């Protein structure tokens, strides 16, 4: 009866797990938004830094004049007298997302919300979507528990908070979600081999390309994953279908953007994706011919193909001179010691980070990354291989450029979630259901006992040895269970304490380090905060006391803010094209 009660309780808990996960994810989304609102509470709804002011200006032009006017806009008020072709030099995904949200709220839902407030709160909203996507990834490659831990961690991890606080209206505000969502759909498409998932992956990649120049990382990581699966003998038609659809459809979609056009066919940054695509077509062709031809004919054909391949490589080497090389920013990542573009080296966020910044930005995930990777290796799948590759490349790039800790933060949280969930599953199992375990053991022993007396011809010695062996096995299992339970009494509270410390650390870093807009400054006079609003007052003075056709000369950092807040023509701004 006790065994039946425990089984019924287990079924009841399983039935309520879905609802419990939903409640937890809802709370995680609330935390993801709330931890990014310190600047709004402390100051007001204000856009941060410099680049976001240009993005806000373009978004306002979009909502005031429509998509085609923004798409064809030539801005004469910047880089005087050159001007700027906005449609050809901007990634429009961020502005189109804000414009869609503005249209949805004002036209469809009839809620009067200014475009500036949408720009301010867009990043926290997408942080919640990123947390949900991270949960889906954790559940896909490990367990739902790993997904919940990963979602809770990415909701507050400082490495991601630094680029997604309220007012941080920059490309990364939506691009990190687009990147993580693309990865999730890619792993899903490789696992299923369905055209639907592959097509959705191509659409997500297109959104990623429209939002951020960091899409180069995506279009090189996916081919790396496909090539790795081919090399380690895990090729399948599912991989072939997924990669072919994603590469062809994703490339065609991205070439519709004015700032991309023929870049995927001309730039070496996309060459790896094209090479892996050709390699997969060749591999599938070889497999098909092998199924049709005899062994001798197949070997002859292979020799001919090798000769043709060498000729194609020679021709490709000659044509390589017509292909545009790597960008200076990518070269600075691949060769940190080289001197490629001085302006890239001069920016502080492009410098290599100090080791303490890793602890500041991803905290305990620093030590949990290898643990999570080890757990994934123990139950290796195609998806697990992808995220291990993601972790390795992200760690390298984050070690070269401090800005790319932003790319490392999601995978750090995913692997940390896998590690924490695995540790808790192992050691909490020794503490779970203690009251049921003894009863279940008694019931199992009674069930395994013989129902009839031994036959007269059975040996008494044999029965005694069997009973002794069974007793030793039960004693050993009981001792192992007891040791696991004792260790769990230490490990489980320690892990819980580390997670609480992670949350406290992340909240403190979010409010102390990443919630200070550069346009509004403050200091503490005793217990009172003093606000210095000199920048905005200066821009307002320029707007009110200078002619509308005045041309302002300033240090390039302030160009975007002058254009957006003073509404005056500038000689230089932050666009370093």
Which SSEs are present, and which pair or pack?
Blueprint lengths: L1 H33 L3 H5 L8 H15 L1 H5 L2 E2 L8 E2 H4 L3 H16 L6 H27 L2 H13 L1 H4 L10 H21 L2 H17 L3 H17 L5 H18 L8 H4 L4 H22 L2 H25 L8 H7 L7 H5 L8 H8 L2 H14 L3 H19 L4 H24 L5 H15 L11 H53 L8 E5 L2 E5 L1 H12 L5 E2 L6 H8 L2 E2 L7
Parallel strand pairs: 5-6
Antiparallel strand pairs: 1-2, 3-4
Helix pairs in contact: 1-7, 1-8, 3-6, 3-26, 6-7, 7-8, 7-10, 7-22, 8-22, 10-11, 10-13, 11-12, 11-13, 12-15, 12-21, 13-15, 20-21, 20-22, 21-22, 22-24, 25-26
List keywords for this structure.
mainly alpha; two-stranded antiparallel ribbon; 6 strands; 3% strand; globular
Cα-to-Cα separation, first versus last residue: 76 Å
Strand share of the residues? under 5%
Report the strand count. 6
State the major sheet.
2 strands, antiparallel
Order of strands across the widest beta sheet? Answer: 1-2
Average pLDDT across residues?
83
Spans with pLDDT under 50 lasting ≥5 residues?
A: 438-456
Task: Estimate the global geometry from the Cα principal axes.
Answer: globular
The radius of gyration computed from the alpha-carbon positions, rounded to a whole number of angstroms, is 29 Å
> What is the helix content?
over 70%
Q: Tell me the number of helical segments per DSSP (H or I, 4 or more residues long).
A: 26
Structural class given helices, strands, pairing?
Answer: mainly alpha
Describe this structure in words.
The strands form 3 sheets. The chain has a two-stranded antiparallel ribbon with strand order 1-2. A two-stranded antiparallel ribbon has the order 3-4. It has a two-stranded parallel sheet with strand order 5-6. With 577 residues, it is mainly alpha-helical. Helix 7 (115-141) packs parallel to helix 10 (172-192) and helix 11 runs parallel beside helix 13. The chain has helices at 2-34, 38-42, 51-65, 67-71, 86-89, 93-108, 115-141, 144-156, 158-161, 172-192, 195-211, 215-231, 237-254, 263-266, 271-292, 295-319, 328-334, 342-346, 355-362, 365-378, 382-400, 405-428, 434-448, 460-512, 534-545, 559-566, and strands spanning 74-75, 84-85, 521-525, 528-532, 551-552, 569-570. 71% of the residues lie in helices and 3% in strands.
């Amino acid at each position: 009866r006790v065994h039946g009660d425990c089984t019924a309780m287990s079924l009841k808990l399983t039935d309520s797990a879905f609802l419990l996960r939903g409640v937890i994810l809802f709370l995680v989304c609330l935390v993801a938004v709330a931890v990014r609102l310190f600047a709004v509470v402390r100051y007001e709804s204000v856009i941060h830094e410099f680049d976001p002011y240009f993005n806000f200006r373009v978004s306002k032009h979009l909502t005031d004049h429509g998509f085609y006017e923004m798409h064809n806009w030539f801005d004469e008020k910047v880089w005087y007298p050159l001007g700027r072709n906005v449609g050809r030099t901007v990634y429009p995904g961020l502005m189109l997302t804000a414009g869609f949200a503005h249209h949805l709220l004002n036209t469809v839902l009839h809620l009067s919300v200014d475009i500036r407030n949408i720009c301010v709160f867009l990043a926290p909203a997408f942080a919640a979507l990123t947390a949900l996507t991270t949960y889906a990834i954790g559940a896909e490659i490990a367990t739902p528990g790993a997904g919940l831990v990963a979602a809770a961690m990415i909701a507050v991890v400082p490495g991601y908070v630094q680029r997604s606080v309220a007012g941080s209206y920059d490309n990364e505000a939506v691009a990190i979600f687009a990147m993580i969502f693309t990865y999730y759909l890619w792993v899903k498409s490789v696992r299923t081999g369905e055209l639907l998932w592959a097509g959705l992956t191509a659409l997500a990649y297109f959104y990623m390309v429209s939002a951020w120049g960091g899409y180069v990382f995506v279009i090189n990581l996916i081919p790396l994953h496909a090539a790795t699966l081919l090399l380690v003998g895990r090729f399948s038609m599912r991989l072939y279908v997924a990669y072919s659809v994603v590469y062809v459809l994703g490339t065609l979609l991205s070439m519709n953007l004015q700032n991309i056009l023929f870049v995927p066919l001309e730039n070496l940054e996309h060459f790896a994706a094209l090479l892996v695509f050709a390699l997969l077509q060749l591999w599938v062709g070889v497999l098909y011919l092998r199924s049709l031809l005899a062994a001798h004919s197949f070997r002859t054909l292979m020799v001919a193909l090798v000769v043709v391949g060498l000729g194609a490589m020679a021709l490709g080497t000659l044509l390589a001179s017509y292909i545009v090389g790597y960008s200076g920013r990518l070269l600075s990542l691949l060769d940190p010691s080289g001197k490629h573009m001085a302006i890239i080296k001069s920016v502080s966020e492009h410098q290599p980070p100090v080791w303490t910044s890793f602890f500041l930005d991803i905290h305990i995930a620093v030590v949990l990354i290898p643990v999570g990777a080890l757990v994934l290796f123990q139950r290796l799948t195609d998806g697990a291989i992808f995220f291990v590759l993601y972790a390795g490349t992200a760690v390298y790039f984050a070690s070269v450029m401090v800005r790319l800790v932003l790319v490392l933060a999601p995978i750090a949280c995913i692997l940390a979630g896998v590690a924490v969930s695995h540790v808790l599953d192992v050691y909490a199992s020794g503490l779970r259901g203690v009251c049921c375990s003894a009863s279940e053991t008694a019931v199992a022993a009674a069930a395994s006992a013989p129902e009839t007396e031994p036959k007269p011809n059975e040996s008494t010695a044999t029965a005694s040895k069997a009973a002794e062996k069974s007793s030793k096995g039960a004693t050993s299992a009981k001792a192992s269970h007891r040791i696991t339970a004792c260790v769990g009494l230490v490990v489980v509270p320690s892990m819980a304490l580390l997670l609480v410390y992670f949350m406290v650390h992340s909240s403190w870093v979010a409010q102390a380090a990443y919630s200070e807009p550069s346009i509004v400054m403050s200091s503490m006079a005793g217990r009172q905060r003093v606000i210095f609003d000199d920048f905005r007052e200066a821009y307002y003075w320029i707007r009110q006391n200078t002619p509308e056709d005045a041309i302002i000369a300033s240090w390039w950092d302030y160009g975007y803010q002058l254009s957006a807040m003073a509404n005056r023509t500038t000689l230089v701004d932050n666009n370093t094209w």
